[in-house]
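User: Can you predict the 3D structure for this chain?
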Amino acid sequence: MDNHYSSTLFTRHNRPLHTLWLESQAWFCALELGRMAGHFFGEPSIRKLDPDQHRSVQLLRYGRYSDTVMVSESGAYTLLAHHHIPENRDLRHWLTHEVVAVLRDRQDSALEDLPRLGRMCWPGGHTASLLYWQSEPWVRMRDMPMMMAAEVPVVVPERRKLSWKECAQRAFRLHGVGD
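Assistant: Here is the predicted structure, written as structure tokens:
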């Protein structure tokens, strides 16, 4: 089945990078990422990746759909590591902190009203699965007894106030005065 996807275009140093948010991951056009990295990411480079790190899709680029090799976020970092150039640190930083962040934010805001999974953690290593829906966390009924049993009150011992004389004696002992 041939699916057609619309891309999101980012530009860095007058170079385009067509991206796609697919299956909760960022995907990048391999050819354009290679241009930005100063290396051609063709078939030999793509073969270095695991099968789940690359795919070919019909992507809308420059007004028409074309067969485009895309690499996942982990695939992009793998290619940048295989073809290491010190200047690509800025490229990796840009991908991580701008491109992926924007793609993720767009996705999160589009899915704000849809249910999503989460976890609740509290001291003592206890965790429970949550479902966030309509801005509310929902807990499975079968997890409630475990959650209620884990709520152990923390008892803080009451501290006695020291007199000025006791404070002075402690200070003398700490600094070795009077030995």
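The first strand starts at residue 4 and ends at 6. The first helix runs from residue 30 to 37.
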